Amino acid sequence: MPSVTRRSRGHRERREEIDERVLDTTADLLSDGEGFTQLSVERIAAAADVSRSTFYVHFSDKTDLLIRLAERAMGDIFVGANEWWMGDQSGGQDALREVLLKLVRIWRRHGAVLRAVTEVAGYDETVADFWRRRINSYVERAAGRLEADRSAGRVAAELDPRATAFVTGWAVERTISEHVRTHGPPADRTFAQALARAIWLATYGDAPPEAGANPR
Question: Looking at the whole model, is its pTM more than 0.70?
Fold first, then answer.
């Protein structure tokens, strides 16, 4: 007789498999050009080969589904962003450009989902609040790094870590989103270079000369 532990593990694995199938199917439908607002639960369930009732066992509603899709995308984006804030910035603008270029490419990979988040956030406060909290969690991490850099003399004493992190964090989110929406991949490197220069100058551009920052 199978153990309770084995049955529980099997149930959990099946639940996770269905979760991933519905998430992947929805992302594919969005990538094919279907609007999230017009996309019905019935359409998603049918495409994922699950019943409508099964969908609601796994997701409380479409908002829950969209937020979980966005969480997957943001997980990838934050891994890329951490390459910069967890490093020593010794590579200057060149290193920052490469990190931002990677973020743009990740954003493109999740573009359909992220466009849906922006669309729904315009009328759904739950999604809007989720998005603000996720971006602001990144802002808080950047602010902590800038506070440490100011204490170590690596940025100007006059720099406000929290305000600077807020400005640069939301600038990255807004400009990458708009760039991906309006430009194709050939423009990505030029865009990343311009954004890197703006962020570098805003954070390290007036650092004390003895800080050793590389302003390339």
Answer: yes
